[in-house]
Specification:
The protein is α/β, with parallel strands linked by helices and 378 residues long. The chain is built from twelve helices and 17 strands. The strands form two sheets. It has an eleven-stranded mixed β-sheet with strand order 1-2-11-10-9-8-7-6-3-4-5. Strands 12, 13, 14, 15, 16 and 17 form a six-stranded antiparallel β-sheet that branches. A hairpin with a 4-residue loop joins strand 14 and strand 15. Helix 3 packs parallel to helix 4. It binds iron/sulfur cluster.
């Protein structure tokens, strides 16, 4: 029997090095571009990113390479997973970031990269190797074997290579064909439990794939196919390490661990941190920018500098009136507002209202987008 390890995936053989960092939440997710030569019907990339040339480090929009370093420091990253789109669509940028990360965090900073085989050439792969990439994961197309032979190109370099594909319940024959093809060509095979995505590129629901239950995004029959592959490989004594990555692993373990690491770096002196890594803090909003319906859209479109300028004199006045230390209050320029402790907020709410500010206690993600989970107005 394949065995379920403490991180909830099932595997035969060792977890690939890149996955070992990932399950501990130690990997920065570097989305280098949404541009991709393929248009898979199960693509999980969001509408804001798919085929758009945008860059994100975790949830942080990247305007310059410094944003990547900032995010990596914040979560105390031990490595990075480079993804997209297809990172090879923007090869020079990808190489620049690999070099930068290796230079700043050292050779041991483990970097793996996901790519389709469509853009893999010996020249491209050679450049990635020279930049210091540690591990490559190829996303083989199940419906066409056109590029499969290109796997051999990656074997010319001494890095770890693997194949990673989604477990599509209606593609059993094709999935076994991948197993047979790669079993003596790569260092590992990763099989991902298929999930519906909230985007327009994913056509799984129209194609009548159903989720396991109403609360789950995982597709019925997907995990079962993975277990079937594992059982077969074990019976045949394949030496290839195979790893079935479940939806539960991604959400309950990998993301949760990353959030906890990010919370340690993002928390202010006055924040309360929950076991899941959520931050609870007091916040003072300008009446025009109080969280509510359409808040995030509004944040994208407003001139933040204008709001920050309105808050600056108020912050100076507050510091004087409250007689607090410099780091007891904080001007958050990304979501123009003043942050402080929940206690200070509750004790002084009348003063804050008198100054025209709206006091609230918020619980939110420690990520760069600081997504609100709960907002309680006072
Ligand atoms: S290769 Fe990946 S990013 Fe590109 S369309 Fe397919 S699933 Fe989406």
């Amino acid at each position: 029997m394949a065995f379920e390890n403490p991180y909830h995936p099932f595997n035969l053989g060792e977890l690939p090095p890149g996955c070992q960092y990932c399950v501990r939440g130690e990997k920065l997710v570097l989305f280098v571009t949404g541009v991709c030569p393929r248009t898979c019907y199960f693509c999980p990339v969001s509408d804001q990113k798919f085929q758009q040339d945008v860059i994100y480090a975790n949830e942080r929009k990247v305007e310059s390479a410094d944003d990547i370093l900032k995010e990596a420091h914040l979560m105390d990253a031990k490595g990075a997973g480079i993804t997209g789109g297809d990172p090879l669509s923007k090869l020079d940028r990808t190489i620049e970031y690999i070099k930068l990360l290796k230079e700043k965090f050292g050779k041991g900073f483990h970097i793996h990269l996901y790519t389709s085989l469509n853009l893999a050439t010996e020249e491209n792969l050679g450049k990635l190797w020279a930049a210091g990439l540690d591990e490559l994961r190829f996303h083989l197309e199940l419906e066409s074997k056109q590029f499969w032979e290109r796997l051999a190109l990656a074997r010319k370099f001494s890095w770890k290579i693997g194949v990673e594909i989604p477990l599509i319940p209606t593609k059993e024959k094709e999935t076994f064909a991948v197993l047979e093809f790669v079993k003596d060509k790569v260092d590992f095979l990763n099989l991902n439990e298929l999930e519906v995505a909230d985007n327009s590129q994913s056509k799984l629901e129209e194609m009548m794939f159903h989720t396991k239950d109403e609360l789950s995004y995982a597709i019925k029959g997907s995990l079962e196919l993975g277990l079937k592959v594992l059982e077969f490989a074990q019976k045949e004594n394949y030496v290839l390490p195979i790893h079935v990555c479940t939806a539960k692993l991604k959400d309950a373990v990998q993301l949760a661990n990353r959030l906890k690491r990010e919370a340690r770096g993002a928390k202010k002196k006055f924040d309360l941190v929950s076991e899941e890594g959520m931050l609870t803090r007091g916040a003072l909003y300008l009446p025009e920018l109080v969280p509510g319906f359409g808040y995030r859209k509004k944040l994208e479109n407003v001139n933040k500098t204008e709001f920050v300028q309105k808050l600056e004199p108020l912050l100076i006045r507050l510091k004087k009136e409250l007689r607090v230390d410099e780091d007891d209050v904080f001007l958050d320029v990304s979501k123009p507002r003043i942050l402080l402790s929940k206690t200070l907020l509750k004790q002084n709410r009348k003063l804050f209202r008198k100054l025209g500010l709206v006091p609230a206690v918020v619980s939110e993600y420690p990520t760069a987008d600081q997504l609100e989970v709960e907002v309680e107005l006072f």
